[in-house]
Amino acid sequence: MKILLDEGYQFGLGVFETIAIEKNRPLFLDWHLERMSHSLRELGISQTVTERQVMAYLVSHRTDRAALKIMVSEKNILFTVRPNPYTAERAEKGFRLLYSGVYRNETSPLVCHKTLNYSDCLLEKRRAALMGADELIFLNSRGEICEGTASNIFFVSGGRLFTPPVSCGLLPGIMRRFVLESFSVNEQVLRRKDVMKMEECFVSNSLMGIMPVVRLGDKEFCKREITGKCRQAYESRRQTERTLTR
To answer: What CATH number did the domain enclosing 62 receive?
Structure first.
């Protein structure tokens, strides 16, 4: 693997996508490439990643279940494959979350892009493990809930779904988009005090899909009714994605 030094690998000006691979097929590939293309344009990086490139890589790196990572900067397009760490057992158990002491900068032009500037997330993910948590949840400078170290977050109250809007300072995730397009979701500013009124919670990303949450801070969640419906919808779409011909 040859890497050319550029602003991506010297200063973090680049983007990446992490895509779930099942039966050697990339799930939601069109959405991932659409988001990556948008971010590259916004960051002024004159690169393009095509479906043909992705599929050609997978032909020579066949895998049943894995995570494909695509990293793009001005002079580099790199592909890597690693195991998908999320299992059915972890979903059955549910995630335990804590609040991060690091604040999201909602005014940053990078916060809504999946960039190579990922140290905050990586360091907080490591800290979560040391604290016995699965994920830490970021607030922004106004004290509004944003997202997890590697996930978007959803809540349920009175049978209604809620999630923070992108303007709070978060990455619009692929699974977040799936939930928003599949269900009626209220994009609403939420604070820690609002969490205490919620009945269900789940987090999402491309590798875990829909992950039930059993605790966030001092708040426990015992119900999974709406969470279960979201998981069922995702599983149905996942099966469809696995059988798509590309």
So the answer is: 3.30.470.10
Cβ 13 vs Cβ 116: under 8 Å: yes
Domain membership of residue 221 as a residue range: 88-236
Interior angle at CA 124, CA 193 and CA 207, nearest 5 = 90
Task: For residues 24 and 62, give the distance between their C-alpha atoms in angstroms, rounded to a whole number.
Answer: 6
- Tell me the per-residue pLDDT of 29-56, one tens digit each, with 9 for 90 and over: 999 999 999 999 999 999 999 999 999 9
CA distance 36 to 172: 12
Residue 175 falls in which region: left (phi positive, over 0), alpha (psi -120 to 50) or beta: alpha
Alpha helix ranges (H) inside 86-166:
88-93, 119-130
Q: Over the stretch 135-148, which tens digit does the pLDDT of each residue have?
A: 999 999 999 999 99
Same domain for 137 and 194, yes or no, is yes
147 shares its domain with 59: no
